Structure formats: C-alpha cells, structure tokens
Amino acid sequence: MQKLALAALTVVLSNAALADAAGEQKVRDAIKSMVPTANIETIADSALPGFFEVVISGNVLYASADGKYLVQGRVYDVALKRDLTEGKEAGLRKGSVDKIGADKRIVFAARNPKHRITVFTDIDCGYCRKLHQEIAQYNDLGISVEYLFFPRAGLGSPSFDKAVTVWCSADRNQALTDAKAGVVIKPITCNNPVTETFMLGQRVGVTGTPSIVAADGTLIGGYMPPPTLLQRLEAIQSTAKAL
Fold first, then answer.
1. Which residues face 51 on adjacent strands?
2. Which one from 93, 124, 128, 129 is the annotated catalytic residue?
3. Is 152 annotated in the active site?
4. Which residues are registered as beta bridge partners of 148?
5. Of 124, 125, 129, 232, which is the active-site residue?
6. C-alpha R_g of the chain
7. Among residues 122, 124, 129, 232, which one is catalytic?
C-alpha cells in the first residue's frame, strides 16, 4: 500500500512538473512573440493564481499560464498588507547593487554605523547637493552613505565629466564635497566606474537623483532629511525582522 501511494504521488508530481514546464514555454513564446529581443531572466510561480512571475531585464511582470495575458503592475497581499512586487524587485536590486564593491564607491562612513545606504548621485543635482550638505548629520545618526555616480544628463555629458574628475582626484571624498559646493575642479581622467554605475542605476529603476537604496534593496526615492530617513530605515528594518 505504501509503495502504491508513493508511486501515485510520483505521478502527480511529475504531471505537475510537466504542466509547469508547458506553461513556462507558453509564457516564453508569448513574450518572444511581442519582444523577440526580450532578456527573460527567470520564470517562476507567483502568488497570483494562474500567473507566472517573470523577470525581464530586472523588471518584474506577470504572465498567465496560457500565455494570453501579460500584466505589468503591483501585486499586493491584502492580508499581510505587503507589496509582493516590491519585495521581489528589492531582492533583485540588492543583488545587483551589492555586486558593486567598495572600490567603486565613495564612502562617508558613520562612526557608529546602524544603517548603510547606497545613493545614486549627480554632481549638479540640487537635492543631491542638499543631501551632501547634511552628510555629517546622516553619519551622526549612524547612517553610512555610499555614493555611486549617476549623471542624469547621460554618458559624455558635462555632469558625467565632473563625476569622472571627482573619481580621478587624489582625495575623492574632498573632491566630491568641493564639486557639490560648486567649486570648479580642473578636469582629469583615469580608469573609472562612472559608466558602469550609470548603467546599473538604469537597470535597478533609478529615474532621478538622489536615489537612495537601503541595504535590503528597497528603493526609497529622493532626498529625505536625516531624521526622516532614519525613521524610514528603522521601519524597513522592523518590517524585515517581522517577516
């Protein structure tokens, strides 16, 4: 009897796996029929019945198992009051951002760190400058700030060149502080990560600066006063512990 039950279970699981594989192929074919060059990274089960969760070039979409419908939007768990799409995107974002090592960041570390944020920044952005004017306050609250360059005007722009100059300076932290204060620094060039971090920003959803990414990958958005940002980071941390 036990052997028969095990055999029956094996058949059920095998059929389920075949059904999933068939559904995934339908989804893949449907997406490719719309966008032949689409970079489909993963297709997996979703919390939405009858739909697969699809990651395309870092973006989360939902596709019906029959390949007829493709949905771009947020999925919320009403009972848990949680944005499931943001949770997935935060994980993807964290994985991408964490690949950028300390050797490609300009770090203003807190003496007694409680939180670490990655900030995509632009030399000429007004709110980027305001954030940096308060860098000591962020640090005093235990927030370590790690900058990645994201020149809003794009590659080869004057803002891009300023970012390269700051990176190539002997004292990057001081050069960044000077540049954000409006000090004109003589242009210099060297091997630099500015193009790489700009492309990364585009991939993880950065559309403006400053863009703040929490340690768990949550995209917080633009400038926040130091006490407000601390409250936001504490809330993110508390939510993560509760899950």
1. 64
2. 128
3. yes
4. 120
5. 125
6. 22
7. 122
- Among the listed residues 105, 129, 152, 232, the single catalytic one is 152
Give 88-112 pLDDT, tens digit per residue: 999 999 999 999 999 999 999 999 9
Is the overall model pTM greater than 0.85, yes or no? no
What topology is assigned to 2-85 in CATH?
Nuclear Transport Factor 2; Chain: A, (3.10.450)
Q: Does residue 122 carry a catalytic annotation?
A: yes
Active site includes 93? no
pLDDT grade for 242, boundaries at 50, 70 and 90: low
Q: Would you list the domain boundaries of the chain?
A: 2-85, 103-242
Tell me the mean pLDDT in the region 159-165: 97
The letter for the amino acid at 228 is: T
- Condensed to tens digits (0 to 9), the pLDDT of residues 6-65 reads 333 333 333 333 346 777 889 998 888 988 888 898 999 998 899 999 998 888 999 999
Judged by DSSP in three states, 61 sits in strand
Q: Is the dihedral of CA 175, 180, 185, 191 positive or negative?
A: positive
Please give the CATH architecture assigned to the domain spanning 103-242: 3-Layer(aba) Sandwich (3.40)
103-242 and 2-85 share a CATH fold: no
190 assigned to active site? no
